[in-house]
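Apologies for my clumsy wording, but can you show me some protein sequence, whichever is easiest, together with the matching structure tokens, please?
=====
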Amino acid sequence: MSDQYTIFVGDDRWFTGALRDDDVRVHPIDFDDDATIASRIEAARLQLESIGYQGQPIMLGPPSSWCLCAEFLTEGLERRGRRSAMGFLLEEHLPISAEDVVADYLDTGDEKALGVCCELEKLQPIVDAMEACGIAIRHICPAAMLTAAHVSDMYLEVGGVLVDSGGDDVREGGASNYDLIQLQGGAPTCWRWFAGDREAVCTQLTSWGRMHESPAPVMHIGSGNSADPVRRACDGIELVELEEVSHYQAAVRHAAKLLNGSASPWIDLRRDAMAAPKQSQIFSKPLGAVVTSAILLLVSVCAVCQWRGRAYQDLQEQYARQQVSVFKDTLPTQRIPGGGIKRRLLSERRKIAELSGKSLDDSAAKPLKSVSALWRLRDVLKNLPKGLRYRILDWSIQPDQIRISGQARSHADADRIASALRQSGLYDVDPPVTHALGKRGVSFEFVAKPPSGQASKPLPGQISLKGGSR
């Protein structure tokens, strides 16, 4: 599992949580009481980076005091436009307008639903500042819901979770605020928040216990010291202390499951007005820069092509003027021909040759064609003697000569190789230079040159080959 990070926000204190290699760490964020949201988020970013944060999406956990919750009936709601209709039903239980909150809903069965919302006035500035600071938010889940979900995963047969957010090892000296989340089938059916009212918690638990003959136990997580008076005051319900982790540590563990996709959140306020930017919005600026760069590149290429075309046109006009100047110097009495100066000059050259009694073939005016080294190699291979055992070790085909070295059984065999190439009439071959190799025969080397009539024809490059045997 990769590292996962959570930021718990609130009115006064903020915390960062990290899960690394199954080790949960929760730290308070240091900032002044009158610090702005931007400075608080900057402090949170620096603290996250100090523990290994590298820009991955995080979980944002608002406190229970920012959230409102209500149960309502969903009987008769159609699937189309269901969320909008649920928003109006939730609004009937809220002291503020539905347009001022972001809400999510969870069906609890029997045509009932649980709605949880948070004021936009609280969340919007924080989310905007985090995105501007480079912190991506994947989910927004109430911290108490994260804690209860972790306990529900650990203990399936529980009827509820009592979260005590004061006096634990993370937040010392804080007031004891309670969250009571009732569960059914591993999902919440009711959420109540008690701000420092222990008596109200005990009353609610006692009432819950009297409504059921054998209610499922309630897991208590948070401060171990405050559980005893609550347990003594409760009647008819079993309150089990969970001492493995604190409520923030439990929330961080479940947040890690949500961030890596192994679980789905009960309530996620990262929607509607708080929805994450679309991919097109995220990449709009880089994409715009790429399009702008492509346009600039295309304009630059067109400009360069236009400039080069103009340069070539000027060069063509310059050569045309030079051609006219040469023609005037050569034939000052004649006017410039319209059919082409080069053709007129060749015609005059042919006329002068005929008047002087010399034949000037049209082909003489054509440049000599290059002879490919591959053709030379073909000619040599074609005229080497057959039925003779020898080995060619090295070929060097250059414009003015071909150098061949190898091994043969005897001096006579080496001479036969050179004679065969000489008798083809294609090359002038010098007598081979041979050296005895003992029982291994002789080594030879000779040079073959094109006849003097062909020596002036250039070769396009040269070839050096390591040969084989025949």
In short: The domain at 373-465 is CATH 3.30.1360.100 (Gyrase A; domain 2). The two ends are 67 Å apart (CA to CA). The first strand starts at residue 4 and ends at 8. The chain has three domains: 4-276, 293-365, 373-465.
